[in-house]
Write a structure and sequence with these properties.
Number of helices: 15
Strand order of the largest sheet: 16-17-18-14-13-19-20
Bound molecules: nicotinamide-adenine-dinucleotide
Distance between the termini: 79 Å
Number of strands: 22
Largest sheet: 7 strands, mixed
Structural class: alpha/beta
Low-confidence stretches: none
Strand content: 15-25%
């Protein structure tokens, strides 16, 4: 792999960090006990900023502010069109500050500025606009029932929503969570990941500028302890969580005390299936993008690459050539295509999996090592001739490590693709339309891409079967996560 030493385009300047405090009830505040934690730039391991470390007391303060805004503020009485207009205005403000927000993502997360600018941020803007459009279109039904009654339903906000998000797409996760929650009239307490709080805080600043009333959006910064306090809080009506399956299990246990509504978007080990009759150029590009995009830190990463035996050798050879072309380096260099992993914990976890793959006898055909000595860079790594039982074939690695598994025919590959606890996404590459749809129908996954990978749109629902999640984000489906249905029956006698 090449390290980008001679960039053609000028490097993007690092952004100024404007906001490091928490937002509670419209005020920018420190933690009540004054504690902070430090965030680091993953490419250099240099300190970025100190951010408040919230405890249960701060969470309680934020929940009270969200409750007040829900019960007493202008928010519940606001015309749905005006709520939608605020979301649209926030979308406009994000668009106007797109370079600054993209640079904050690169600083906090380490993702290449080109990806943050061209992938993450445009999807954020789209998502906010999309849900701005939904605000005045969420309605109930009139239902014919037996007897002389008039029966109708209405859709009401769930109330105070705790939203806990990860570090891999920090701002996009904010948009996926805020969009449907705000369109339907809920109030929010959000906890961004401890690795990447800065872009969320800046976006909260923009939300105040857009005119969201105090207390409608609250942001607390901190670790899992703050997330757990939010989950346990009796006055939080719902938790929306994106992150690891293990943390979701904790959350489910903690939420059982108050029977909160829960939606989860979790991990995966998604099969990417390439048949011999596929457009190989497209499939090779899709295999590379499907795994290595965002340094492999995608819940839907195509980490199990099933390749039909007939083309296996040729395919892997060309894929390895592509993997070697990836340019690792400074996230602020527009020529960089792969940045560092987000932090030392993730780096260590991935390196451990690479070691386990080698030990298990999988063939490491490229990569397999750290890149450089500073920052959490890992070489794009491809393991060939992986078997279904190896850890690198069963576990979510969340890094730039691809497992190639050869297969013979469609029935075999579908059965093997489904042999996982997960069911988030899958892809199939073939020119045979019937075969593509047979696979799409048989694979147990929330999203199936045919001859493409990682195609996201605010209008298309996304979420997991099995242990990959509960509920769907995006599209009309996400609105159901944030509304309660009320049935009203009136006697006509
Ligand atoms: P995590 O699930 O621990 O963290 C995600 C969020 O949950 C963070 O905001 C964190 O502070 C919070 N959290 C942690 N413990 C909590 C608790 N007990 N109660 C409430 N909130 C809590 O993820 P991680 O440690 O950052 O990453 C570990 C693994 O998770 C990764 O290696 C990857 O496999 C997976 N992951 C998946 C996604 C995804 O998009 N599905 C995103 C990030 C990480």
């Amino acid at each position: 792999m090449s390290v980008s030493t001679a960039p053609k385009a000028a490097k993007i300047a690092r952004p100024k960090v404007r906001q490091t405090k928490m937002l509670i009830g419209g005020e920018w505040v420190d933690a009540l006990n004054g504690e902070t934690f430090t965030t680091y730039h993953p490419a250099t391991e240099e300190k970025i900023a100190d951010v408040p470390r919230a405890t249960a007391q701060d969470v309680d303060r934020a929940v009270k502010a969200a409750r007040k805004a829900f019960e007493e503020g202008p928010w519940p009485k606001m015309d749905a069109r005006d709520r939608g207009r605020l979301l649209t205005k926030l979308a406009d403000l994000v668009e106007a500050h797109l370079p600054e927000l993209a640079a904050l993502e690169s600083l906090d997360n380490g993702k290449p500025i080109t990806d943050a600018t061209n992938a993450d941020l445009p999807l954020v803007v789209d998502c906010l606009r999309y849900y701005g459009g939904w605000a005045d279109k969420v309605h109930g039904q009139t239902i014919p029932i037996r007897g002389e009654y008039f029966c109708y339903t209405s859709r009401e906000p769930v109330g105070v929503c705790g939203q806990i998000i990860p570090w891999n797409f920090p701002l996009l996760m904010v948009a996926w969570k805020w969009g449907p929650a705000l369109a339907t009239g809920n109030t929010i307490v959000m906890k961004p990941a401890e690795q990447t709080p800065l872009s969320c805080l800046r976006m909260a600043e923009l939300a105040l500028e857009a005119g969201f009333p105090p207390g409608v959006i609250n942001v607390i910064t901190g670790f899992g302890e703050a997330g757990a306090a939010l989950v346990k809080h009796p006055d939080v009506d719902k938790i929306a969580f994106t992150g690891s399956t293990e943390t979701a299990q904790h959350i489910m246990r903690d939420a059982s005390q108050t029977l909160k509504r829960l939606t989860f978007e979790l991990g995966g080990k998604s099969p990417n299936i390439v048949f011999a009759d596929a457009d190989l150029d497209a499939a090779i590009a899709g295999a590379e993008f499907g795994l290595f995009f965002n340094q492999g830190q995608c819940c839907c990463a195509g980490s199990r690459l099933f390749v039909e035996e007939k083309i296996h050798e040729k395919f892997v050879g060309r894929l390895v050539e592509r993997a070697k072309q990836r340019r690792l380096g400074d996230p602020f260099d527009p020529a960089t295509t792969q940045g560092p992993q987000v932090d030392k914990d993730q780096f260590d976890k991935i390196m451990d999996y690479i070691g386990r793959g080698k030990k298990a006898g999988a063939q490491c055909v490229t990569g397999g090592d750290r890149e450089g000595t500073t920052g959490f860079f890992i070489q794009p790594t491809v393991f060939d001739n992986v078997t279904d039982d190896m850890d690198i074939a069963t576990d979510e690695i969340f890094g730039p490590v691809l497992s190639v598994l050869p297969f013979k025919d469609i029935d075999e590959v579908v059965e093997r693709a489904n042999k996982t606890l997960y069911g988030l996404a899958a892809a199939v590459w073939t020119r045979d339309v019937a075969k593509a749809h047979r696979v799409a129908k048989s694979v147990r996954a929330g999203t199936v891409w045919i001859n493409c990978y990682d195609v996201f749109d605010a209008a298309a629902p996304f979420g997991g079967f099995k242990m990959s999640g509960i509920g769907r984000e995006l599209g009309e489906y996400a609105l159901a996560n944030y509304t309660e249905v009320k049935t009203v029956t009136m006697s006509l006698k």
